[in-house]
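Tutorial, part two.
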Amino acid sequence: MASGQDPWELTPTVARHPDGPRRLPGGPNLPSIVMIVVALGTLIPFLMIAEPFSTGDEASAATTTTTGVATTLSTVAGETSTTIASTTLTTAAGSDLTTPTLGPDAGPLQALDLQLLASGIPFPVFAASILNSDDERIFVLERQGRIRIIDPVTGLADTAYLNLTDRVGSGGIENGLLGMAFHPHFADNGKLYVYYTSTELNSRISEFEVGDSGAATVDVGTERILLEVAQRGIRHRAGMLEFGPDGYLYAALGDGGMADDSAQNLEVYQGKILRIDVDNGDPYAIPSDNPYASGGGLGEIWAYGLRNPWRFSIDVGVIYIADVGQANWEEINVQPLAAGGLDYGWPNFEGEDCYKPSDGCDMIGWQAPTLAYTHEEGCSVTGGYVYRGSAIPELYGHYFYADWCNGWIRSFRYHEGEVVEEQDWGGDLEGAGQVSSFGLDTNGELLVVDSNGSVYRVVAVR
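Running the prediction step on this input gives:
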């Protein structure tokens, strides 16, 4: 996740298969709301209460301000109940999702806060969980090579879930154990995947297996290396792993930090997002609909032109890629997951500016960032997730992200190809420190990972 100031910079080399932009805003002022309710209640009794950050264009909102809420809250006149109504959200993928509801005793959202889950973790860089399961454990990656378990009842376990310190090279702040993903059928097959840099600082994606999905530890002897990418330097490793709804594993690699055109070279893995089928082939298969499955580039490549996509996430047919910038810009790219083969511009572009060359660059054929911010606001973007939990329905559909250098957390909603409802949560969540990553617990609630050693859950203040 390195930038021009590069607190997280890394540097790779030529890869080989093992076999061969925007900005931001207050909470319910109850006396004013009551007056509106009295005046207009008889005119619009059919209206439901709307989410403070509406997931539909049809919501009517009255913006009010409450101390401590760095947001724009929507209130519909004619409703005194604090119940959050169920609203259907149509995603960019065209699927209908139903906004969760809160009971009649829930109060209006006043602010967000951080619930500390664990501390004293040596340089945590990611948090994962087994989504949609009864297993409530949270798995935290230490950059030096261990995966630890946070139990919601007993806290941080002393014994590592997986200990790879004998094979992880963590020299340079951007190397180490960087990413993790559970197989979509983990409960049945016990397979999990990790991305780490080897002792030679090469990028490695490996599969591990447990006989029981509830096992307390993983046998390191079950490692099966799927892909190893030779690297020349110590920067720009990226490291995110995530399974898409298609069942394929997506993996992000940075450009290597060598100030070259690797991100545009379709014959190397650097500066790309890869897409592989881990359920077939040896050690994996190339999905037949990958952009270069039939030639013209490495078959694994799904997207290119990325500098250091430290964190990306997939939400209902849409991918959010947070790409760490170089000199002036940090950017987030949002595109349909079905749109493989896109060029995100690096190193020809940084943000929407020419970078190489500094002017007169060819603007045809690349994807402009969906959102970008300058280095006056931060220097290293940390991508997060779209919130699909049930505890804070007012934020359903909001994508959260942060800046590692300046420590703020922001969110926006992506609607019909546009960034809307931007929010700055700096006042509420300023205790998050240097956010190295976000995560989701098994219920879809948002987790925040502070590289200084703590993991939090984002909770509502009502």
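The first strand starts at residue 88 and ends at 90. In part three we will examine how such features are distributed along the chain.
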